[in-house]
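Schema walkthrough. Field components (list of strings):
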Amino acid sequence: DVKVTQSSRYLVKRTGEKVFLECVQDMDHENMFWYRQDPGLGLRLIYFSYDVKMKEKGDIPEGYSVSREKKERFSLILESASTNQTSMYLCAAAGATQETQYFGPGTRLLVL
Amino acid sequence: ILNVEQSPQSLHVQEGDSTNFTCSFPSSNFYALHWYRWETAKSPEALFVMTLNGDEKKKGRISATLNTKEGYSYLYIKGSQPEDSATYLCAFMTGGSYIPTFGRGTSLIVHP
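Field assembly_structure (string):
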């Protein structure tokens, strides 16, 4: 089974701080994704990456950036955290042929 | 942005009841439909991936059907148990894309 881990389960940050959310997968999958989940809105795609150093914007990329320097690691960066970025953040990985997404446990971020 | 709708938004049933809910998606350019179960404090996990019109999948008491011509999938749970309580997500994929579009989910609560 693919295992996807995220660096923190809970984070509290202040407005204006730079925030790093790390995601690591152990099954050599090409595709990695960052979502946020808010009540009543479902999973919304922020960014995805289909290869090392490759990234594409999802539906809601504003205020976020990503980094994929190694195949197993996909980082989400909030350059200057704002209160409207308080949310649950989920990372996922998927193989090129499988497409089933394997999710991490999520990071619940609170921006004060 | 593709329109993927799930209904109902939430559902309360008694232990032993059978239940079903719906995922509606565009009927054109269909590639795959995924169902995930997301229990509180856990990662979403894959239940089924369905690719052919008329597909029926089953895992224990949970089953799913697919109608790609009319653009819907049903998820059935027979004899619901409290451990079935979760949010059930569907994710629609079009041909040529590995990016799923998620519905907002159906929250199921099974009361003992």
